[in-house]
Amino acid sequence: QVHLVESGGGLVQAGGSLRLSCAASGGTFSNRNIGWFRQAPGKDREFVAAVKWSGSTHYLDSLKGRFTISRDNAKSTAYLQMNSLKPEDTAIYYCAATGFLKGISGEQMAYDYWGQGTQVTVSS
Q: Could you tell me the CA-to-CA distances from 35 to 5, 11, 47, 87, 124 in Å, in that order?
């Protein structure tokens, strides 16, 4: 059983940056894919970015160039660096983990473990 805890959310002005962290415990981290998803008020949860166990990455096309996902296996932690934030980035951000050695995916059903989320609010 993998336990995921997100941190790093908060209130930031448009154009600012935040770095979210996803700390994992209770299971092997290095051979799982980690994904970030977000849910804005009144909207469905959507894929943001994923990093495969091998290190390759996958992004929502509209976020490429502003968001960067990374991982530190020694710390069992994944990160989401968010730059040039916009009010429409306001959402609860969730991290999620897959089973072992899976192909990279932006589909929520591919992920077996989820964190509780961290709120990101971008003011205009």
A: 13, 22, 8, 22, 27
Per-residue pLDDT band for 1 (boundaries 50, 70, 90) equals confident
* Closest to 93 measured CA to CA, from 77, 114, 63, 113: 114
Summarize pLDDT for 50-98 with one digit per residue, the tens.
999 999 999 999 999 999 999 999 999 999 999 999 999 999 999 999 9
CA pair distance 7, 79, nearest whole angstrom: 10
The pLDDT of residue 101 is 87
**What would the two tokens of residue 21 be?**
């962290």
Order of strands, sheet of 3-7, starting from the edge strand that comes earlier in the sequence:
3-7, 18-25, 77-82, 67-72
Q: Which residues contact 3 (CB under 8 A, 6 or more apart)?
A: 24, 25, 26, 113
Q: Do residues 70 and 51 lie in contact, with contact meaning Cβ atoms separated by under 8 Å? A: yes
Which residue is associated with the tokens 């490429």? 64
Query: Cα 109 to chain center, whole Å?
Result: 15
